[in-house]
Amino acid sequence: MPTMNMLQAINNALDIAMAEDERVICFGEDVGVFGGVFRATSHLQERYGKARCFNTPLVEQGIIGFANGLAAQGSVPVAEIQFADYIFPAFDQIVNETAKFRFRSGDLFNVGGLTIRTPYGGGISGGLYHSQSPEAYFAHTPGLKVVVPRNPYQAKGLLLASIRDPDPVLFFEPKRLYRASTGEVPEDDYQLPIGEAEVIKEGSDITLLGWGAQMEIIDRAVELAEKAGISCEVIDLRSILPWDEDTVVESVLKTGRLLISHEAPRTGGFAGEIAATIQERCFLYLESPIARVTGLDTPFPLTLEKEYLPDHLKVYEAIRASVEF
Amino acid sequence: MTTTEDVHALAFMTGDEFHIPTYRLLRQDGSLFEGADVPDLDQDQEKALRLYRAMLVTRVLDERMMAAQRQGRLSFYMQCTGEEAAVVGATAALDDADMIMAQYREQGALVYRGFTYDEFMNQLFGNELDYGKGRQMPIHYGSRKLHYMTISSPLATQIPQATGYAYGQKLAGEGHCTITFFGEGAASEGDFHAALNMAAVHEVPVIFFCRNNGYAISTPAHEQFAADGIAPRAFGYRMHVIRVDGNDVLAVYRATQAARTIAVEKNQPVLIEAMTYRLAAHSSSDDPSGYRSRKEEDAWREKDPILRMRRWLSGKGWWSDDEEKELQESLRREVLETMKRAEKRPPPPLDSLVTDVYADVTPALQRQLDALKQHIRRYPDDYPKGALSLDPGVRAEDVADKPADDDRGGA
C-alpha cells in the first residue's frame, strides 16, 4: 500500500472520481493548469481536459452559484474555495440556495451532486484570513452535509463518499496537515461513511471528541493523560452535519465525562451543540461538567497564535480538571 | 484578454461614450415600423396565437388572483402586468426544452409552456398537489417537465446558476441553452456581475434577460444605477448585447430568437435588456401610490403590450373582438373554478416537513418529527392542518382556511 500525504490522497480521490464519471467537474481559483495553490488538483486538467478542470474568475459567490446551477443540471461539480476564510462571499449561495434546493422545489430539482472543498484551520501563521474554522456557521443550516477528515486515508475515503453522496457536501480540509500528515492509503477506490463518528481508541474515564486537525492535538494530550493513569476514549466526529449523536452518547454513558475540542471560537462553536445534546441524553450519567477546549472568542491572531490555539497542554489540563472534579 | 494602445495625452473616459438604441418593430397601433425586419412569427398564425393567448391567460390570472389576495383568500401575490410581452415573447423564441431560470415575475413563461391553471392554483394555495409541497410562498413556481427552475426569493442568485446550468448543457452537447430573467434592481446584486463575467470567460450558452421596468419596489431606476441602464455593462464583459422595447412582442421575440442562435451555435452569452414598465404594484404587500404618480402609470397603460399585439393580430385578420371577448370570459370562469378546487384541497402531509431536506430523512430529523406528532396529538385543534394527516378521518373542508363559494373576484 502506497504512502501518501493528505494532498496526494485528495488528488488521488479526485482522479478516481473524474475517471469513473465524466460528469465530475473540478473548478475554482487556480485549480487549472497550476493544480491549485496547494496542488490538490495537480494534473487533473492535463488528464481530463480544460472543460472538466478549469480556473474560474476570482469570485466566490460566482463559483458556488455556477456550481449550484451545474449540479441542478445533473453534473457533479467539485468546487474549490481557496481558503475557508473566503467562503463567506458565497454564504448566500450555500445557505439560501445549495442547502434549500431540494426542499423548496419539492424534490423537482436538487444540487445533490455538489461538493465544496476548502482548506481550513490554523497553525500555519495564517493570521485572521488564512486560519479560520467556519464549520459552525454551516452546522446551523439544514440541507447541508459538513465533513472534516483527519488524515490521508480518511481524506480520500470521505471525499469520494462526498462526491457521490446524494446531498451537497462541504468538505473542510485541515491545511496544516496537507503535507504534515502521511500514511498508507489504498490505491483502489473506497469510501468512508458520512454521518458516522469513529471511535479511535477505547477508554473508560473520559470521552474526548474532536475532528480534523484537532484529533492530532487530542492524541498528544491523551499520551500525557494515559501516563498520569487516566483512561481516555477518543472519538473522531468526522461529520459535523449530520452528526453521529448515538456514538457519542454511547461513549459518554460509559465514561461519564466528555471533553470537546475545536480550533474555532467557543461561543456558537459546534461544541456547544454537542454539549447541549449530550447533557439532554446523558444527564444522569454525567459525573462532571462537559468541558470545551476551543479557540478564544477573538479573531484568529498572528503573533500570539500558539497562545490562542487549544493545544495539547490545554486539552490535558481540561482532562485532569474533569477527572478530578 | 486585455489589449490596449498607447496615448500620450491625458484623457479620461466616463462611460457616456456608450449609447445603446432600443430595437422596436411594432407601433402601438399594431402596424410595423417602416423598414422593420419582420420575424417568422408574421407567417406563423398558430404560434402567434399561442403567444397571444399566453399573454392573455397571464393577465387574467394575475387580475383574478390579486383580487383573491385582497379578499384574504391568498397570503401573497405578484403580477406580471405590463411585462407579458417581454416574458412571453422571449419564451416563445426558445426551444420548449431550453431551461428557464426566472426571478418571480415571469409566470407568463410557464403559461406559454403549458402550465395549467390547476398547477398555478395548487402552488398558490400550497395544497397537497403543489409540486413544491406547500413549502414556499405563492408565485414560487417550478416545473421539471416544462424546464422551469423553481423560483427562490433571494434576488439574482439564479443568474450565476444559469451560467452553471448552461455550462452543463454545453458539455452535454444537446444544443440547448438557458435563459435567466431578472429585474434591473436584481442586476445591482454581486451575483449579476459574477454570472456575466463567468459566462463570457467560459463561453457559455446562456441568455441574460433583464426586465428593466423602471422600479425595484419603490426605488426608481435612476437611484439604482447612474449609467445608461443595464445594457452597456455587457461591453465590460465583452458580450453580445441588445436593448429592446419590452412592450413590443415582435421585437422581443426576434431579438431573443437571434440571441438563442448566438448562444447555441457559438456558445457565447447574450444580454438582452427589455425596456418596460411595472404596471401593477410590486406585490400584494405594496402600494405604489406612495412613490409614483397616477399620471405616469396612465401614460404606460396606453402602451399596454397586450393591446399592441391584439391590434397587430387584428390587422392581419387573425383575431377578432368576438374571439377576444369569448376567450376572456372563459378564462375568467376557468380561474374561478380552479381556484375553488385548489382552496378545498387538503394541505401536504405532516411528514413533508422533514422530507427533501436531505435525500433521506436523518435520524435526528425523524426524532424531531416523532416528537412533533406526539405534541400535535395532544393539541389537535390547535394544529388543524397537521392533525389532518395524522387523522385522515378529518374532512379537508373542516381545515381549509377560507371556504369560498362566492364570486367576488372582480376582474
Secondary structure: elements and pairs:
The complex is a heterodimer of chains A (325) and B (411).
Chain A: E1 3-5, H1 6-20, E2 24-28, H2 44-48, E3 53-55, H3 60-73, E4 76-80, H4 91-97, H5 101-104, E5 115-120, H6 135-139, E6 145-147, H7 152-164, E7 169-174, E8 182-184, E9 198-201, E10 206-210, H8 214-227, E11 232-236, E12 239-241, H9 245-255, E13 258-265, H10 270-281, E14 291-295, H11 305-308, H12 312-323
Helix pairs in contact in A: 1-7, 3-4, 8-12, 9-10
Chain B: E1 22-23, H1 45-70, H2 84-92, E2 99-101, H3 107-113, H4 117-125, H5 158-172, E3 178-183, H6 190-201, E4 206-212, E5 215-216, E6 219-220, H7 233-237, E7 240-245, H8 249-266, E8 270-275, H9 294-301, H10 305-315, H11 321-344, H12 363-378, H13 384-390, H14 396-399
Parallel strand pairs in B: 1-7, 2-3, 3-4, 4-8, 7-8
Antiparallel strand pairs in B: 5-6
Helix pairs in contact in B: 1-2, 1-3, 1-10, 1-11, 2-3, 2-8, 4-11, 5-6
Task: Describe, in plain words, how this protein is organized in 3D.
The complex is a heterodimer of chains A (325) and B (411). With 325 residues, chain A is α/β, with parallel strands linked by helices. Chain A has two domains: 3-184, 3-Layer(aba) Sandwich (Rossmann fold); 198-324, Rossmann fold (3-Layer(aba) Sandwich). Helices cover 36% and strands 20% of the residues of chain A. Chain B is built from 14 helices and eight strands. In chain B, the strands form two sheets. Chain B has a six-stranded parallel beta sheet, with helices on both faces. In chain B, strands 5-6 form a two-stranded antiparallel ribbon. Mean pLDDT of chain B is 94; it is low at 400-411. Chains A and B meet through helix 3, helix 4 and helix 5 of A and helix 5 and helix 6 of B.
